[in-house]
Amino acid sequence: MKKLKWILFIAVLAIIVSCSDDTPEEPDVPVVVPAQRTIIAYMDGNQVGNSLPQFLNLDIKEMAKGSDKLPADVNLVVFANIRGEKPYIAELAGGESTKVREWESNFLATNPDSMLSVMQWIIDKYPAYEYATIFGGHGTGSLVYTDTVATNLRRAYAYGWDYDNGKAIWMNSQTLGTVMSHLPHMKFVFFDCCLMQDIEVANNIQRYTDYIIAPVCETPITGAPYENIVPLLSTSDIETLCTDVINAYTEANGICISALRTSGITNLFNVTREAIKEIMPVINNNATVLYRNCIYYYRRNKISDPVLYELQDILYEQNQGHILSDATYQRFLDAISQCVFYKHFVTWWVSDPSVGINFNDFTVTDENFGGLSISRETIDDIIK
User: Which residue has the higher pLDDT, 50 or 10?
Assistant: First the structure.
């Protein structure tokens, strides 16, 4: 009897062992290794009545060529919303552009929900330890334009524009900041758009990026020389990267452009407010005195009515006229030097090549060029 029990025990044990041998092994779960850096190029060219869409296509081709010199641990991914084409996302690597997503019809790329959705999709598909963004398209700094996306109608309609039912749809910089607040922190933002190095734009996105590279004046429609710039975007030291990008840009285009640290923007805004409030009683609260002989970057009506000025030149002129004290002006210089760490200027620039409008009725020097603009509306708010 005992012998039978042992035989049965051994048989059952054999069955158990054979069953365990038949159990399939758990499949290996692929480990996603984040890249060192993912750079998102958000290119909005859904406009009517100008040639920007075709030049953005050329910019993307230049980016693809430049990607051949990027290391394998840096992703460059472009979103393109070009008039007459289906919006798409493409990975740029090894000198080639490979579409990874395409939409059937155009949508408003300046709509905050659309922008957030696109950028989050790229971030999910291309995880990295660091992120950065290039914005390509039109820009207006902190000037007022009709914006059916934003709820206010005052100013800072900074980026765009998109085109819908005969209307230009811009995204203001407050809304851009809201979009960025839902995304990973950016190491840098590079605006390849007109007029975007503006103190109010910087103030609205300062919490979401460490650095901003942007033109202070209007830019040529050809945009940045991306074949030369893209290889620079893997540089680990961001201040070196910003400096090299500006040097490459200005070798190809004569523009006013700068790079700034966002960490000092709040202090700069406060010091600027102090200075303007010191000036106003001395000039009998006549704000037009602030702008006399100053560098300006944009005229509302092209041929008249300047509305966007060089911040440093406003205070420089008032200090030279003994209206702003040396002590306050020095505090301003200290504050702006903590923000703007690299800048390049030219002495005049073209606003509208089609009609030959040049901005040259002022003097630009190292002393009065700070590389950051301020709008008349922003100053009006400070004065109130």
Answer: 50
31: helix, strand or coil = coil
Q: To which H or E segment does residue 98 belong?
A: strand 96-102
Pairing state of beta strands 186-192 and 128-136?
A: parallel
Cβ contact 161:47 at 8 Å: yes
Tokens 């060192």, residue located: 36
Q: Is the pTM of this model over 0.85?
A: yes
Give the chain's domains with CATH numbers.
Answer: 35-261 (3.40.50.11970), 265-383 (no CATH)
What tokens does 315 get?
A: 């205070």
The answer to whether 106 and 87 are in contact (CB under 8 A) is yes
297: left (phi over 0), alpha (psi -120 to 50) or beta: alpha
The rounded distance, in Å, linking the Cα atoms of 312 and 271 is 12
> What is the biggest distance separating any 2 CA atoms in the chain, rounded to whole angstroms?
118
**pLDDT tens digits, residue range 105-129?**
888 888 899 999 999 999 999 999 9
* 155 — pLDDT class (breaks 50, 70, 90): very low
62/57 Cα distance (integer angstroms): 9
Percent of the chain with pLDDT over 90: 63
Half-sphere exposure of 189 (CA within 13 A, CB side): 30
